[in-house]
Amino acid sequence: MATTVAKLSWVQSLLGELRVSIPKPPVIHCDNGREEKSILTGEAVSCNPMAKVCWPYFDPEYENLSMRINPPRVSVDNLSCSDCTLIKVDSMNKPGILLEVVQILTDIDLLITKAYISSDGGWFMDVFHVTDQQGNKITDGKIIDYIEKALGPKGDTIDGVKTWPGKRVGVHSVGDHTAIELIGKDRPGLLSEISAVLADLHFNVVGAEVWTHNRRIACVVYVNDDATCRAVDDPTRLSVMEEQLKNVLRGCEDDDKVARTSFSMGFTHVDRRLHQMLFADRDYEGGGTTIEADYPPSFKPKITIDRCEDKGYSAVSVMCKDRPKLMFDIVCTLTDMQYVVFHASISSDGPYASQEYFIRHMDGCTLDNEGEKERVIKCLEAAIRRRVSEGLSLELCAKDRVGLLSEVTRVLREHGLSVTRAGVSTVGEQAMNVFYVRDASGKPVDMKTIEALRKEIGHTMMLNVKKEPSSAKTPEASGWAKTSFFFGSLFERFLT
């Protein structure tokens, strides 16, 4: 009898705990400025355009139960197609999964020539047709193994697999360094001034990504102490650096809102972070007085948004000049604008790409009003153009040393060259830098300037000059290499 009473008491206690832990229905906000009723509670809900879905606490073990029962399945197929590799991903659906998969593929510099996406309901099924940068199938065993691990069931548990180390923003992402985020008004020679400040304060630049768009510049710079080669945690020293960088970014303008500096503490993908910084800076509102306005018509994306009545989607169609990482830039922007991709079809026809996405806002709303459609079109167009670089790219390789970036950017400035985009990487003792340049007025660079540049720095570093495909049918290369340098070529060295 005592045992039965004890069991009943235990059951009652358990039921009481279960009643307490049952989550309340979510509060749902929509993105169209209307007032809606919650479909779960019937209560009126304010539709704040910037609001997010607010969910209560939920047991993470239970939340991941479906994923553990039905782990992701990844297939790398080199037999079905003669000219590309097929990567098939089947998985339980979860927020952001499409961006995660595309990010992993683009981080190792794979070109996505076709893709078919379906994630309507609880299941996510993708097929990607991919090649390497030279248009060949993926046959490298290490890269195939990486794809299977990163996208497979153990991808969330294997440290360092989910994100390529060179593409993370944060104090511990590439080693002992501090990541600095900078955004402000662009001008010729600005990158040279930024690197000079860092060199004067005895900070060594171990990596950097720099984008410019609509006369705005956003960059993430990885630095460490030039003496100890470790991250700098002295608040006084960091404060001095932050103030001097802000003064450089601000230039002659007194408004503090013109420029911002901050220290990144998270583990955000660096390309995604640059998109977020420029999006928050509203670079998509530029008024057609930028250098981009001089681009040929082939650079201008054609974006339309229609309503798919039978399924209740908004169909976003994008046609533009194809380039690497185009799909990542579009999916990244849609995700950060809180839109969910349910279906998509991607294809490349010669030099052009056609991409179609069937989306809804994360609250279930479609793009019904013209203002919302116009905003999405502007943001996608900005995302596509941020990575577009017409003209020349300069690829430099030299033994790393303190102040190297400052020296190189000073020489570029003295030769009248303006950097529109840059990637700086350090592997071991070698610094590998890629600069996309135009002249100070935004026009293509005269080759006489390049020859003068080669004579000045050729004795200290190897220089490769490459014309972008948009300006020439074949690359013009000379110096230490005849092929283009891609950061993905460092992938194997990161794994070892």
Write a structural description.
The structure is a single chain. The protein is α+β, with helices and mostly antiparallel strands. The chain has 4 domains: 23-58, no CATH class; 66-162, ACT domain (Alpha-Beta Plaits), CATH 3.30.70.260; 166-284 and 389-495, ACT domain (Alpha-Beta Plaits, 2-Layer Sandwich); 296-385, ACT domain (Alpha-Beta Plaits). Helix content is 29%, strand content 29%. It has 13 helices and 20 strands. It has an 8-stranded antiparallel beta sheet with strand order 3-4-6-5-15-16-14-13. Strands 11-8-10-9-18-19-17-20 form an 8-stranded antiparallel beta sheet, with helices on both faces. The longest helix is centred in the N-terminal third of the chain and has 20 residues, at 2-21. The termini are far apart. 35% of the residues are buried. GO terms for molecular function: amino acid binding. This is ACT domain-containing protein ACR. Keywords: Repeat. It comes from Vitis vinifera (Grape).
In whole angstroms, how far apart are the ends?
66 Å
Our estimate of the beta-strand percent is 25-35%
Taken together, the total number of domains comes to: 4
Helical region count?
13
**Which parts are unreliable, with pLDDT below 50 for 5 consecutive residues or more?**
14-58, 157-174, 288-294, 470-496
Q: Name the strands of the widest sheet in spatial order.
A: 3-4-6-5-15-16-14-13
Q: Structural class of the secondary elements?
A: alpha+beta
Q: Could you tell me the radius of gyration in angstroms?
A: 25 Å
Number of strands: 20
Helix content: 25-40%
**The biggest beta sheet, please?**
8 strands, antiparallel
- Tell me the CATH architecture of the largest domain: 2-Layer Sandwich
If you average the pLDDT, what whole number results?
77
The level-1 CATH class of the largest domain: Alpha Beta
Please name the CATH topology of the largest domain.
Alpha-Beta Plaits
Q: Rough shape?
A: globular
- Any idea what the CATH superfamily of the largest domain is called? ACT domain
Protein name: ACT domain-containing protein ACR
Keywords: Repeat
GO molecular function: amino acid binding
Function: Binds amino acids.
